Amino acid sequence: MTVNFKQGTAIAVCCVGSLLWGSAAYADGWPTSVAGNWSVFANQSSGALSITQPTSTLNCRPISGSIFGNPIQGFYCPTSGRIVFVRKNTSGITTQYYQGNLSQTGSTLRIGGSFSSIGGSYGEYSFYATK
């Protein structure tokens, strides 16, 4: 297929127009805190992710809370949108390692990433959360 200059320009204008008027998920301008209650889907299950975050001026800030009723501990980097935490069982033993990135669509915050199961069904699986 041959595309002449006019056709190429028309295609480019349509593509750029779609990008400008579509609803984009922004990957910068992350919030300073991710504290609060999130809806999470992981391991074919939906549930709650609750995050607390003390005041901090560090580049990556400590977080804690719970996921699916189990305690978590990790960090969130507001300069990059990176979030990492471990899920511990009731005995305090780490059972899963979560890593993801934040994005924002309108006023909705999203986390998308993966988690590794360290016990039971070993492997790496996807997860996402919204707030």
Query: What portion of residues is helical?
Result: 10-25%
Portion of residues in beta strands equals: over 45%
CATH topology: Lipocalin
Low-confidence segments: 8-23
Counting structural domains, the number is 1
Kindly, what is the distance between the CA atoms of the first and last residues, rounded to a whole number of angstroms?
46 Å
Mind telling me the CATH class? Mainly Beta
Q: Measured on Cα atoms, how large is the radius of gyration?
A: 19 Å
The number of helical runs is 1
Q: Report the average pLDDT across residues.
A: 84
Biggest sheet: strand arrangement: 1-2-3-4-5-6-7-8
**CATH architecture assignment:** Beta Barrel
Tell me the series of helices and strands, N- to C-terminal: HEEEEEEEE
Number of strands: 8
Write up what this structure looks like.
The chain is mainly beta. The chain has a single domain (25-130), classed as Lipocalin. It has 1 helix and 8 strands. It has one helix at residues 5-21; strands spanning 36-42, 45-52, 61-67, 70-77, 82-88, 94-105, 108-117, 123-130. An 8-stranded antiparallel β-barrel has the order 1-2-3-4-5-6-7-8. The termini are far apart. Mean pLDDT is 84; it is low at 8-23.
Quick recap:
This protein has 131 residues and is mainly β. 13% of the residues lie in helices and 51% in strands.
Describe the SSE topology.
Elements: H1 5-21, E1 36-42, E2 45-52, E3 61-67, E4 70-77, E5 82-88, E6 94-105, E7 108-117, E8 123-130
Antiparallel strand pairs: 1-2, 1-8, 2-3, 3-4, 4-5, 5-6, 6-7, 7-8
